């Protein structure tokens, strides 16, 4: 099985959100449930540059019904949206599932969508890429890796979703980089200095962020400190 | 078993070593395919000594200047390659092998099919079949 990362031009709900007056930083599709009549129920995480109200968003997205909207605890101007949208608003997701590929992440920025998905093999990769290219006009393969496990399909990574609301982007970045580079392995595959260099932060800042992450994990597990 | 090892830069020693260790066999020839930006492969290949260390016969070829993926596919068909090895130059933050323009063109080429293996330092396209 191959895990692939590719980019396509921004489309669907991401491009609609980027077209509103308030500046949007990123849009991630956390979950999607099909509803009758070609509609889909979507859970989204949307980062804005400033605060935004549900009313303002509803007025600017007339064809999308906002069911619920809440702000993330730690990351400012980041909102969790539950919306009812047309299936065509997540066409890349539909194309992936129709072609029996497994979507993992779909993140929109102002110009493109970053998509991570799993495909069976090389032939399947070409079929999926051709279908998406036909429908979206272009596709750029960014990366690939071989994997034995199916991983978390879109929306099923509940732990990560829970944590992502409790840790800041900086803390998550530090944690993920340290994990990916092998900092938590025994023996360590990378030193703290090397991680700090990778992230372009000082050794003391790295140490502080990692301790805050550990503190947040403990708070999640054991509740707030008395 | 005929193997093409595509070399995009002269410092891809680990990719070439991995190809010689895990892909090629002594039965068939190996073609080191130098892409135009790479000026000379002699020192790299001689240093690895494929003939003595791995018992393979090899030759060094070069794609013409400004050639695209079709030239590479034509070459693969001409030598009836079973495998194509492409070095991984970098990885994404999550460990995926970064795919450049050439690699993308090869992976999505309509005339090529087979199996794909992502190794430590190279991507191997094996059991290649060609649509004429």
Which structural traits does this protein have?
heterodimer; A: 226 residues; alpha+beta; 2 domains; 30% strand; globular; B: 132 residues; alpha/beta; Rossmann fold; six-stranded mixed sheet; 30% helix
Spans of chain A with pLDDT under 50 lasting ≥5 residues? none
| Count of individual beta strands of chain B | 7
Provide the succession of SSEs of chain B.
EHEHHEHEEHEE
Measured as a percent range, the helix fraction of chain A is 25-40%
Mean pLDDT of chain B: 87
Helix content of chain B: 25-40%
| Separate helix tally of chain B | 5
Descriptive account of the structure:
The complex is a heterodimer of chains A (226) and B (132). Chain A folds into 2 domains: 2-146, no CATH class; 166-222. Chain A has helices at 12-18, 54-60, 91-98, 122-136, 158-164, 169-180, 192-199, 203-222; strands at 2-9, 24-35, 39-48, 65-71, 78-86, 102-108, 112-119, 140-146. Chain A has 226 residues and is of the alpha+beta class. In chain A, helix 6 crosses helix 8 (203-222) and helix 7 (192-199) crosses helix 8. Chain A is 37% helix and 30% strand. The longest helix of chain A has 20 residues, at 203-222. Chain B has a single domain (3-130), classed as Rossmann fold (3-Layer(aba) Sandwich), CATH 3.40.50. Chain B has 5 helices and 7 strands, in the order βαβααβαββαββ. Chain B has helices spanning 13-22, 42-48, 50-54, 69-78, 101-107; strands at residues 3-7, 30-34, 58-62, 83-87, 97-98, 112-118, 122-130. The model of chain B has no long low-confidence stretch (mean pLDDT 87). Chains A and B meet through strand 1, helix 4, strand 8 and helix 6 of A and strand 5, helix 5 and strand 6 of B. Strand 8 (140-146) of chain A pairs antiparallel with strand 5 (97-98) of chain B.
Break the fold down into its secondary structure elements and pairings.
The complex is a heterodimer of chains A (226) and B (132).
Chain A: E1 2-9, H1 12-18, E2 24-35, E3 39-48, H2 54-60, E4 65-71, E5 78-86, H3 91-98, E6 102-108, E7 112-119, H4 122-136, E8 140-146, H5 158-164, H6 169-180, H7 192-199, H8 203-222
Antiparallel strand pairs in A: 1-7, 1-8, 2-3, 2-6, 3-5, 4-5, 6-7
Helix pairs in contact in A: 6-8, 7-8
Chain B: E1 3-7, H1 13-22, E2 30-34, H2 42-48, H3 50-54, E3 58-62, H4 69-78, E4 83-87, E5 97-98, H5 101-107, E6 112-118, E7 122-130
